[in-house]
Amino acid sequence: MGNRVAREDFEWVYTDQPHASRRQEILAKYPEIKSLMKPDPNLIWIITMMVLTQLVAFYLVKDLDWKWVIFWAYAFGSCINHSVTLAIHEVSHNSAFGHYRAMWNRWFGMFANLPIGVPYSISFKRYHMDHHRYLGGDGIDVDIPTDFEGWFFCTTFRKFIWVVLQPLFYAFRPLFINPKPITYLEIINTVIQVIFDITVYYVFGIKSLVYMLAASLLGLGLHPISGHFIAEHYMFLKGHETYSYYGPLNLLTFNVGYHNEHHDFPNIPGKSLPLVRKIAAEYYDNLPHYNSWIRVLYDFVTDDTISPYSRMKRHQKGKVVLE
């Protein structure tokens, strides 16, 4: 269904990613931005409240009809759980406790992981650091779709299915692109999560467990917040690799929409990224950006020039040090 996308490969480039050079230039002109490179302790309380909110939701849905379990999983739980994944993104950058207490961030990430239902926090950190260091790196950056995704999801209907199934592709893609040996922290993350899931089942019942898992699957698939997956790096304009979003959903997502600013300064918590844009406005105001993630999803599905192949990709030069 729909026209077939003409693109048959990624956009291969032979230049370095733009963020490192822009970071140096901005810091030379505005050294006060360094003062924003500090942890955001408010994350601790915000994340704790989100986890507790989902625990209350588990209790409230345990006796509902199945149709209402799924309804609330999408209408409410999906927003919380997607927001939690972006809180884990913040914690992966050590934004909760700072770089000097890196292990505190890892343990706190496992705590934040609990209402998602699937062990995620530790593995995400390992791959996400590679994404920042080697943006678009062939065989390194698992944010880039596989060749199969680009080849197969090439019509309007297939792209729609790809959007719905995004959480599954993000989960399994690393196994094909950049598999890594399992670490003891990943084992601990998995054991803690399995124990939590079993506890939810025995304390609240099967409906609460399904609510939790459905909230994650639905919230990371066809959902307004999921527009950020595509908005961040899919090449809607030739030559532009990263795009920011300045709409209201930043309030639920720890300002992940400020994505050019985030890649330029990954050590600055999301709370302070609007200040980066304000201070160095001339570097950001003229870059292409979005105001609607829903529009991004619609354009991705319906535009027959855009597909999973619409990513800039590069062969990495020099020595590669993986997380």
TrEMBL record:
Coiled coil: none annotated. The keyword rRNA processing does not apply. It is a multi-pass membrane protein. Keywords: Endoplasmic reticulum, Fatty acid biosynthesis, Fatty acid metabolism, Isomerase, Lipid biosynthesis, Lipid metabolism, Lipoprotein, Membrane, Myristate, Oxidoreductase, Transmembrane, Transmembrane helix. It is an enzyme of class 1 (oxidoreductase). One of its GO terms (biological process) is fatty acid biosynthetic process. One of its GO terms (molecular function) is sphingolipid delta-4 desaturase activity. The chain crosses the membrane at residues 43-61, 68-87, 107-124, 182-204, 210-231. Residues 5-43 form the Sphingolipid delta4-desaturase N-terminal domain. Its EC number is 1.14.19.17. GO terms for cellular component: endoplasmic reticulum membrane; mitochondrion. It is found in: Endoplasmic reticulum membrane. It catalyses: all-trans-retinol = 11-cis-retinol; all-trans-retinol = 13-cis-retinol; an N-acylsphinganine + 2 Fe(II)-[cytochrome b5] + O2 + 2 H(+) = an N-acylsphing-4-enine + 2 Fe(III)-[cytochrome b5] + 2 H2O; all-trans-retinol = 9-cis-retinol. The keyword Lipid biosynthesis applies. InterPro entries: DES1/DES2, FA_desaturase_dom, Sphingolipid_d4-desaturase_N. Interacts with RLBP1; the interaction increases synthesis of chromophore-precursors by DEGS1. Has sphingolipid-delta-4-desaturase activity. Converts D-erythro-sphinganine to D-erythro-sphingosine (E-sphing-4-enine). Catalyzes the equilibrium isomerization of retinols. Belongs to the fatty acid desaturase type 1 family. DEGS subfamily. This is Sphingolipid delta(4)-desaturase DES1. It comes from Canis lupus dingo.
